[in-house]
Amino acid sequence: MIWEALFLGLGYNATLVTLGAAILGIAAGVGGSFLFLRKRALVSDAISHATLPGVGLAFVVMVGLGGDGRNLVGLLTGGAVSAAIGLLCVNWLSTRTRLAEDAAIGAVLSVFFGFGIVVLTYIQTMTSGRQAGLEGFLLGSTAGMLQSDALVLALAAALTLALVLILRRPLTLVAFDPDFARATGRNVDRIDLAMMAIVLAVTVVGLKIVGLILIVALLIIPPVTARFWTERVDRVLLGAGIVGGLSGYIGAAISAAVPDVPTGPIIVLVGAALFLISLLCAPGRGVVSSVLHHRQYQRRVHLRQGLLALAQGQPIYERLTQRLMEQRGLMRGDGVATEKGRAHAARALLDEARWHVVRNDQAYAAAAERYDGLTEMQKVLTADQIREIDARLPAPQGAMP
Amino acid sequence: MTGSEFVPLSLVPMLIGICVAVACALPGNFLLLRRQALIGDAISHVVLPGIVVAFLLTGVVASVPMLLGAAGAALVAVAAIEAIRRLGKIEPGAAMGVVFTTMFAGGVLLLEMSDTSAVHLDVEHALYGNLESLIWLDATGWSSLLDPQALAYLPVELPRMAGALVVVALFIAVFWRPLKISTFDEGFARTIGLRTGPLGLALVVVAAIAAVAAFDAVGSIIVIAMFICPPAAARLMTNRLEAQVAWSVLFATVAAVSGYVLAGYGPLWLGAADSVSAAGMIATVSGVLLACAALMGPARR
């Protein structure tokens, strides 16, 4: 069943929804990257929660006009309008009053959502209209979706993605360096507005698929995941698009195969699994790589300190140092240096003595900054410079016994 | 309305609403000033998986395991946010967004996959609770407040919420000076020997206690609203912390009482037959209060 769903074998509707979710995921991942780079990720939380009263009121209005209130386009339009009002409130509160943006986000999120709940409970008492399914906007439900709705969603997702791709370059510029963008004559406020429009579009299209509580995850998790793998903006965008698209595709496919479960949580958890893998395994920033790097660093410090102790004839008591020195054949089990150990130790001591000269000489200030007790001098200075330093070393005080 | 109608039906929900509102607004003042306002949002989302896991482990809907589960989930979330922030050098807002959405999604999925049809545990309840249902059937009028037999059947949420309020208020009162100093000038607080790290964590834990106790009775949306709206409105009224806390308590109480009344009787005044969600209406009223403060508050800029 799940394999069939993954290979789009569950019928026209499910296929349409799955593809729509994948496209939405890509748009959300790329669009969310700009939000993430602008450090305004949680604004999307306010936007998504603020859709609820609009959806509810749109339902009430449509029923009042004589329909059954199930028109998806109408509901989503209502959601978009109230989300836009919510966004304006966030901006107004954070720029015109002393409240910080996080407080404005929280206030708008909770008040709009609370009012939405009021509208929903009012709808539950209404006798006309087909209210079943409105709860699906909370957590997303794609089961039993009308074919026309699935088509609308897939098209809207594709349009959103097109918008993201068209606006990619100015958005990247502003996200990465707003001051430079302003200095080169771009209208940063308008580009920010475009970013918010994209977030709004993703949220509204995602309402039915992911649900308004969790749509924010589709905007935040992909860029954070991609950030672990690269330090470059264009690759963050690419990676976030891939992660978002995969989450949407796999999540919607699983949900089509297991219809009892709301779609949103599954899509989010697929994204979270990708995030967890990145957190653990990404090269450079991942946990495993950090631990390995730390261990390697630790070994280098212990070896260096062990060699310096050997060179100065001091006993070594530290267990890890002893083990590392023995493993490398630098020291015997009883703490006596081997031939190789004495050679390495002498070299370490010489290096340290050279560094001592360099760090006391203003002329080598740039090189002295690289001193960390580990780097060998050959990696920092040229052979000529080292010869010059060697000439200044104090004369040997007689060989060690 | 007479006492024989008001006491059994409205007194208890109203008192619980006030306790929730004040217990959340008090720590909310400090969270707001520390730019951690959204911690309340995150906590109230992660409470759900904690409660579901506690239910799956014990098989009963009992308060103590659920409180423990929820508190555990809140601590896991705080630790995870911190870990992601440090390991990935991710900004705190995004780290928070990753953690609370993931944990909430996990909670929803666990809830839907496991058989909880026999007990009162569902996502809608978690979001907006059911304040109106906490009625005190054994009361007959104001005299019941002195009747030990009727008091024994008081809804358990009321003493629990009152207890949480006492804990929160005590914490704020005892640590008033250190909290105030470390909120306004963390560097100075550290130089005079205050341990700002544990203090900040304690504040989050106290906020979590308030959120978890409130969650069961009123759902998460009112918790988020009360963490932020009354303190934010109070912030626009004054420049002194003491006055701000007092204003926030006033705003929280007004929101709880008028929100409850509007939800219960407002639709009747407008000619509709049924009441609407009290939790949602309390959040809405707190938003209206904030809007008034933002438009007219003496210290709004």
Q: In the CATH classification, which architecture of chain B applies?
A: Orthogonal Bundle
Question: Nearest-angstrom radius of gyration of chain B?
Answer: 20 Å
N-to-C series of helices and strands of chain A? HHHHHHHHHHHHHHHHHHH
* Strands of chain A, total number: 0
Low-confidence stretches of chain B: none
Structural class of chain A: mainly alpha
The average pLDDT of chain A is 86
CATH architecture of the largest domain in chain A: Orthogonal Bundle
pLDDT under 50 segments of chain A (min length 5)? none
Amount of beta strand of chain B: under 5%
Tell how many strands the DSSP assignment of chain B holds. Answer: 0
Number of helices of chain B: 13
Overall mean pLDDT of chain B? 86
Largest interface: A-B, 59 and 64 residues
**What is the CATH topology assignment of the largest domain in chain A?**
ABC transporter involved in vitamin B12 uptake, BtuC
Order of helices and strands of chain B: HHHHHHHHHHHHH
Assembly state (oligomeric): heterodimer
Task: Walk me through the structure.
The complex is a heterodimer of chains A (401) and B (301). Chain A is mainly α and 401 residues long. Chain A is 72% helix and 0% strand. Chain A folds into 2 domains: 2-264, ABC transporter involved in vitamin B12 uptake, BtuC, CATH 1.10.3470.10; 288-392, no CATH class. In chain A, helix 2 (11-37) runs antiparallel to helix 11 and helix 15 packs across helix 17. The longest helix of chain A has 27 residues, at 11-37. Chain A is elongated and about 105 Å long. Chain B is an all-alpha fold. Chain B has 13 helices and no strands. In chain B, helix 1 (3-33) runs antiparallel to helix 10 (196-218). Chain B starts with a helix and ends in a 5-residue tail after the last helix.
